[in-house]
Structures are given as structure tokens and as C-alpha cells.
Design a protein that fits this description.
about 15% strand, Aspartate Aminotransferase, domain 1, binds pyridoxal-5'-phosphate, 5-stranded mixed β-sheet, 7-stranded mixed β-sheet, Aspartate Aminotransferase, domain 2, globular
């Protein structure tokens, strides 16, 4: 926790280390495809697909938080597809969660399969069962979105490494302030910074972090050659968002911890999933592995109709897909075909004062009975 506090404090002063007298304190937005480049180009910024000072600043910030080198991408899927593609070859087998972010499985089925890369699937809660022999990449998402199941990053990393696999962790739901996969033994972290990292619901962004130089060289080359580069303005927005991540995440997690037990006791809810609840199946591992319990809560209402009425009827809930914004939001995940019951709602707690939010949630739950 002290280490995290130190990182949070230093984050706000990272840029100062590079400033010369008279430089702007706020990060300038570098919008250029060309650089002034007469003669020998070696050692200079060359072209907008290779270099951008605003990317570098956000990568400094993200890498600082993850304790690794970071590379920025135009979306979470941009980062994830870069890792899975750049680090795989024909004949490889990779292992994915069957209950994680759906698009990752779809990407493997639609595109990796054509390259002769096989993707197997396993539920997050029993991810260790069956071992990791024969896999080149073991990819996990914990807590899983949307079911909020958890798997043991340290134990999986140890076992996967013994089998010769690289371990990739999607850290989107926790951010660097809630969970530190690389410290637990994972090789590569991916994140959809579209969510809490940016936090203002106005940008898509992603990043890859790793302490493995060979991995990062491959990912950097992939980005440069494939052209999957982030826009400088989006990088600037995420850099700004990161300045308040610790503050926002702390508020969001604290509110979730306060509200989850009250939700569990509400008669309109058949089930509540939150790793911070002592009787949640994920609780014991979450206490060891995570610094916080996160800001996502899974709610099960009796029917799809009641779930929709609750979401639409709550004055402090934004009905929307995606999560991690300053405003609380919610959606019924079965509308996208997730393997959950029709009345399952993913609730993303925002930055509203906790008791205000609770009153609004309680009112809306009382109304649907
Ligand atoms: C949203 C999300 C992604 C994909 O991010 P995009 O920015 O939408 O491409 C990946 N993983 C998880 C866990 C997510 O929630």
C-alpha cells in the first residue's frame, strides 16, 4: 500500500523531471505526422507512425504505475490483439477464459484460427484445472468481466512458466491501483484504458506493459508495422485522466464496499456478486491478490423486465455498456449474449457521494420490488 501511495504521488511529478526552464508544466499536445528531419534520420523522431511525444508521456505514466515499460494502443482490443498476434505463430495453442471479455474469444475464432493458432477456453474460477502443458500463451482476466470470478495470478504464472507459456493478464477491471499482475509473476499486462484509467467516458484507449524486453520489442514492432497507433489527442486525454485515477478509484471502490452489503440484503435482489463481500466465492483469494475489491458489482434481479426497470428508473444510473466512468452506470449483460441469467446487471460504481448514490439505488430497487 505504501508503495502504491508513493507511485500515486510520484505520478503527479513525473513530467517535471524532464522539464527545462520555461517549458509548459501541462503536457503539450503534439499533433504532427512530420518532423523536421534534414540529413541522417538516425536518433531523431522520424514519422508520426513511429514516434509521438504525447504517446511517450502517457506511456511513462502507465509504465510508472505498472512498474514496467508500457506501449499505448488505440483501444483495449488494439492492445490485446497486438499481444496475441505479435507473439503467436502457426501451430501455437493459446488458452483464454471462457467467461472473460467476449471480443477476445471472437478475435481468436475469426482471425487467429485462420493463421493456424488454436484457442482453448476455460472458466476463470477453475482455470488451473488441466494444467498448461502445450500452451504458448495463457491469458487470464481477473476479476472476470462480467461474472466477477477470480483466479490466482501467482499460482497460474508459476505453473504456466513451468510449462513454457507466457502469462498475459487483462487488468482492466482493477487498474494498477487495485491489482499488480506483473508483481505476482505475470509476463504481460493488457488494459482497456477506455474504462477507469481514462475514466471520463470520452475516449477509447489501451496499453500493454511488460518487464520482458524481447516481448516489448515485438509489440513495438507490431504497432509500428501494423499501424495500430493511438491518436495523440486520445493519449493526451488519458494522460490527464490518469492524474486523478487514484482519487477516483479510491472513491469508487470505497463506495462499492459500503453499498454491496446493503444490496445483498435488499429483497429485490436474488444474488449479489462482489469480491469484497465475505461470503463471495472470490473473497478469500481477492483479499490476498488484490489491493482493493474494485468498483464493479454483479446484481441478479428476478426477471429481465425488472432489471431494465431498475436501470431505467434509477436517477443516478447511466444505462450504457462499458464501465469505469465518473458516473455510475449499469446494463443487463444478457442483451449481448453473455452467459448470464436474463436478470443479471453489471453495476459500475462511479464517483457520486456514496449515500446519495445509495438512496437512488434503494429507491429504484424498492420501486421494482
Ligand atoms: C472493454 C474491455 C476490453 C476492450 O477494450 P476496448 O477499448 O473496448 O477495445 C478488453 N477487456 C476488458 C476486460 C474490457 O472490459
Amino acid at each position: 500500500m505504501t508503495d502504491l501511495a508513493a507511485r500515486a504521488a510520484d505520478l503527479l511529478h513525473l513530467r517535471r523531471r524532464h522539464l527545462a526552464k520555461g517549458d509548459p508544466v501541462a503536457l503539450p499536445l503534439t499533433m504532427t505526422s512530420m518532423f523536421h528531419l534534414p540529413g541522417d534520420p538516425a536518433g531523431f523522431a522520424q514519422y508520426g507512425r513511429f514516434d509521438n511525444a504525447t504517446w511517450e508521456a502517457v506511456e511513462d505514466a502507465l509504465g510508472h504505475l505498472d512498474g514496467a515499460r508500457a506501449l499505448a494502443f488505440p483501444s483495449g482490443m488494439g492492445a490485446i490483439s497486438a499481444v496475441l498476434t505479435a507473439l503467436s505463430k502457426t501451430g501455437d495453442r493459446i488458452l483464454l477464459p471462457s467467461d472473460g471479455y467476449y471480443t477476445v474469444r471472437l478475435f481468436a475464432d475469426r482471425f487467429l484460427s485462420r493463421l493456424g493458432i488454436t484457442a482453448d477456453r476455460r472458466p476463470t474460477a477453475s482455470f488451473l484445472d488441466g494444467g498448461f502443458e502445450g500452451y504458448s500463451i495463457v491469458y487470464i482476466e481477473t476479476p472476470s468481466n462480467p461474472g466477477l470470478d477470480i483466479c490466482d495470478i501467482a499460482v497460474i504464472s508459476k505453473s504456466a512458466h513451468a510449462a513454457g507459456a507466457l502469462v498475459v493478464v487483462d487488468n482492466t477491471t482493477m487498474t494498477a491501483f487495485g491489482q499488480r499482475p506483473l508483481d505476482l509473476g505475470a509476463d504481460i499486462l493488457v488494459s482497456a484504458d477506455t474504462k477507469a484509467a481514462n475514466g471520463h467516458s470520452d475516449v477509447l484507449f489501451g496499453h500493454v506493459s511488460s518487464r520482458d524486453d524481447a516481448v516489448m520489442a515485438a509489440i513495438a514492432e507490431w504497432r509500428k508495422l501494423s499501424g495500430a497507433i493511438p491518436g495523440p489527442f486520445e493519449a493526451w486525454q488519458v494522460h490527464r485522466g490518469l492524474e486523478t485515477l487514484e482519487l477516483r478509484f479510491d472513491r469508487m471502490c470505497s463506495t462499492a464496499e459500503r453499498i454491496a452489503p446493503r444490496l445483498r440484503d435488499h429483497k429485490a435482489l436474488k444474488a449479489v456478486r462482489f469480491p469484497g463481500l465475505p461470503d463471495d466465492p472470490a473473497h478469500n483469494l481477492a483479499r490476498v491478490q488484490m489491493d482493493r475489491f474494485g468498483f464493479l458489482i454483479g446484481l441478479t434481479l428476478e426477471t429481465a423486465e425488472k432489471a431494465e426497470a431498475f436501470i431505467d428508473g434509477c436517477r443516478l444510473l447511466q444505462p450504457a455498456t462499458s464501465f469505469g466512468g465518473t458516473h455510475s452506470s449499469a446494463e443487463r449483460r444478457a442483451r449481448w449474449g453473455d452467459a448470464v441469467v436474463p436478470g443479471f446487471v453489471r453495476l459500475s460504481i462511479g464517483c457520486e457521494p456514496a449515500e446519495e448514490l445509495w438512496s437512488a439505488l434503494e429507491e429504484a430497487l424498492d420501486a421494482v420490488g
